[in-house]
Amino acid sequence: MLTTDQREMTVPACDVHRGDGDSRFRRILVPVRAPEEAYPATAVAARICGLTGGELRLVHVRTCDPPLPIVGRLYLETPGEATAMLEEALLAAWACGDPRATTVVVDARRGDEAAAITRQAAAWPADLIVLTRRPRPALSRLVRGSVPDQVMRKASCPVLAIPPARITARTAPPDLGHIEPGRGPA
Length: 186
Description:
The chain is α/β, with parallel strands linked by helices.
């Protein structure tokens, strides 16, 4: 089990650093399920972008159930709710380091979230995926596997898995009341 200080990273057979010391982590993708869950990964990714002059992409997968003959697809959230969730995560990223950042909402069937994330990472193309691992019972991870585990197996770029933060005054997401959506930090 990971502790708060441990990080887990998988690196497919690739060269992570150039010989001149320049980092290849310039395009960083962060999947956002919920802004408060993604905050540890968003904060780390924003700091890496600040160090490398990189670019951040926040991705939210809007899931749907398989199509029904009468009503079609039933999404668990509206496009407006998905966009609002990404705006909140974007504000948190800007508060952690003011990186250049974009957001995207991707639609996928329930159970295909990891495939949608890795397709987005390949299409963008991302140099690194940073995600937050949620604590889950061992039995459920064995039976189905978690989305972060599936992303680590399917991704064609390195994946950095950050453990969920314990909320304290030091690690709590910043108060973003002074930042207007779409405008960045003041």
